[in-house]
Every structure is written in C-alpha cells, then in structure tokens.
C-alpha cells in the first residue's frame, strides 16, 4: 500500500515555542517514520506580517535547526524552504481563482492579524489560506499535523481542493488536520490570554531557546491565585492552563498529586510551578543546546535545504503537470 502523504510548515517569524512543539513538531517526528513527509519553513507566509527581511535568513536557519534538534531527520522527511519550491506560486495563482473574497474576509486569523497590523492589511494576508492550501495540495497531502489555531485554514484547504476537483479533475485528496490519537492541541500562553506564539505574547510564551533562568522567571510569573476555597470546584481557565502544561511535561503521578490537592483545597501553586519549571528545563535544555550547535553549521544547513528542495520540487512538478493538464493549459 502506498504511504499517505504528510505536509506542514512553520513560519520563520521568531523562536519556536512549546506550542509549536506540541501542536506540530512532536507529530512531525513521529510521522516521519510512517509516512511520506514534507515539512517546510514557511518563509513566504512570514512576509504577510513581517515585511522587513533583515532577520529572515537568521530566522530560517533557526527554524531549520530547531526542527532538527527536536528530532526531525532530513534524511527521512523532506525539510525545505517554501520559497525554493517555485511551483507553489503557480498553484497559488490558480487556486486564487477558486477562492471567494467573502470567505477569505471571514477567516478568524485574517480578522485577528488585520486588527494587530492595521497599517498593513495586504492582499497576501487575505489570501494566506489560499497559499497554505497550495503548499499542502501541491504534494497531494492528506494529513496535516498542526495546532488547533489552524483548524479553520484546513477546512478552507479542503474546500479549495474539492472545488478544483469538481471544476477540473479529481487530482487532490482531501487534506485533514492531524494530531496523534486526540483533538488538536492549543498550548495556552502563561498570562491566560490566548496561545503561546512566536510573534505575540512573548513574555508569556516559553521558547525552546529560553535559558533555564528565563524559563523559571516566566513560569513564576504565570497567572494563578491563592487557590480554591470550596472542595472540588471548577478550575478557572488560567489554572486549567497550568494543569494542561503539567500534563504535557510532568508524570501522571505529579499531575494526580496536584489534582487531589486542588480538589481538597490544599494546593500551593508555588510548588506546582516549581515542579513544572524543573520538568520543562529537563525537556528544553538539551533541545536548546543541540539547536545552537546545528545553527552554527551553515554548510550542513545549506545541504539540508538543497536536499529538501530537490525532493519537494520533484513532488511539486509531478502534481503541476497533472494540474495543467486538468485545467486545459496544454496547447501543444
Ligand atoms: P506567529 O505568531 O508568527 O503566527 P506561531 O507561533 O503561531 O507564529 P506558526 O508558524 O504560525 O507559529 O505555526 C506553526 C505551527 O505551530 C502550526 O501547526 C500551528 O498550529 C502550531 N502552533 C502555533 N502556536 C501553537 C500553540 N500555542 N499551541 C499549539 N500549536 C501551535
Ligand atoms: Mg501563527
């Protein structure tokens, strides 16, 4: 049986964080052994909100290094840069003819980003889901490991793929958001407002490059309160968030200890936080050190990008000849 195809990407807009790890990277690493995988640094997507390219090269190198440090193997998966696969732009153009401005204007991420960047509401921001759909279906991928924030984009990618199939020919499988065994993940920010992010909420986001001291400082500052006063009461969102983080990093035993302490009102959030940062540091520090050394090896990064682009372009070119044929763009 042919292997299913997997595609996903991360924007080079800053340092990778725990949300990127648990929403995306953790799945990439597991999927590379089971499927045919394409993982990219989404540099074109970053231009929609980060038009200044002074730090782009450094950020591309950083994302590649952090991907590899988390366990992604460039010999198993194609790890490449979005802008190296020129076929993406061609498919993006064709898909734009199948996307309606109304549906694009209603996208939650478009509305959020437009609010955050009121002086730069560019057309690229509006058509972001079209470019993302092109990235995915260019490899005829059906599985897309992403976090919860990308759910709506995936629904749109499915719509665009289906529209193409109905209008022209059945070329594209339906792409679906993927997470092993459960719902999509959202790693909340430590201030209880929204999700951890590369370009927002930076003091409330824990990055894979944070020093041990900075991790301690951020966790100490995480929003909490003096604890419940009634046994077995419901947890406020920001406390639920601390438990979610504990669940990601600490043992089942530790989690249960604090669940019981919460339920009998004996919980001390200072103790919970200390166990949390200790377990976070144990997880993050080896990744941070590995990523730093990979980042210094520019020759290796170049080799990775070249190899990845060659694999991704071969797959893209095969799809694009089917696309042109289906669309009737073949005149001799
Ligand atoms: P930016 O702020 O620049 O948009 P980001 O942190 O949202 O950066 P992206 O590059 O947009 O990161 O997304 C990369 C992947 O990480 C996507 O699959 C996205 O769903 C996932 N992701 C991002 N933030 C979180 C989070 N807090 N929890 C779970 N998954 C996340
Ligand atoms: Mg994002």
UniProtKB/TrEMBL annotation:
It holds the Pfam family tRNA-synt_1b. The keyword Transmembrane helix does not apply. It is an enzyme of class 6 (ligase). A motif ('HIGH' region) lies at residues 12-20. Its EC number is 6.1.1.2. It is found in: Cytoplasm. A motif ('KMSKS' region) lies at residues 195-199. L-tryptophan binds at residue 135. Its main location: cytoplasm. One of its GO terms (molecular function) is tryptophan-tRNA ligase activity. CDD domains: TrpRS_core. Catalyzes the attachment of tryptophan to tRNA(Trp). Belongs to the class-I aminoacyl-tRNA synthetase family. PANTHER family: TRYPTOPHAN--TRNA LIGASE, MITOCHONDRIAL. Homodimer. This is Tryptophan--tRNA ligase. It comes from Terrimonas ginsenosidimutans. The gene is trpS.
């Amino acid at each position: 049986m042919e292997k299913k195809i997997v595609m996903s990407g991360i924007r080079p807009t800053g340092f990778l964080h725990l949300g990127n790890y648990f929403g995306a990277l953790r799945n990439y690493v597991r999927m590379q052994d089971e499927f045919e995988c394409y993982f990219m640094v989404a540099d074109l997507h970053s231009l929609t909100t980060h038009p200044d390219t002074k730090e782009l090269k450094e950020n591309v190198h950083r994302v590649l290094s952090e991907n590899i440090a988390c366990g992604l193997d460039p010999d198993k998966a194609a790890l490449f840069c979005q802008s190296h696969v020129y076929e993406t732009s061609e498919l993006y153009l064709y898909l734009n003819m199948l996307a309606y401005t109304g549906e694009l204007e209603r996208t939650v991420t478009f509305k959020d980003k437009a609010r955050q960047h009121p002086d730069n509401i560019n057309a690229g921001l509006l058509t972001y889901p079209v470019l993302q759909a092109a990235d995915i279906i260019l490899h005829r991928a059906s599985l897309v490991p992403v976090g919860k924030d990308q759910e709506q984009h995936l629904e749109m990618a499915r719509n665009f793929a289906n529209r193409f199939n109905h209008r022209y020919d059945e070329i594209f499988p339906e792409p679906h958001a993927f997470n092993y065994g459960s719902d999509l993940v959202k790693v909340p920010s430590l201030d209880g407002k929204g999700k951890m992010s590369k370009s927002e909420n930076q003091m409330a986001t824990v990055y894979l490059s944070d020093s041990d001291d900075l991790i301690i400082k951020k966790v100490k500052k995480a929003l909490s309160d003096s604890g419940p006063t009634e046994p077995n009461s419901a947890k406020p969102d920001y406390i639920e968030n601390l438990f979610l983080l504990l669940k990601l990093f600490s043992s089942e035993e530790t989690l249960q200890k604090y669940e019981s302490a919460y339920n009998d009102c004996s919980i001390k959030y200072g103790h919970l936080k200390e166990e949390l940062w200790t377990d976070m540091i144990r997880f993050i520090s080896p990744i941070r050190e590995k990523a730093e050394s990979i980042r210094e090896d520019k020759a290796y990064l170049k080799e990775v990008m070249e190899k990845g682009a060659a694999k991704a372009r071969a797959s893209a070119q095969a799809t694009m000849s089917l696309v042109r044929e289906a669309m009737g763009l073949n005149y001799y």
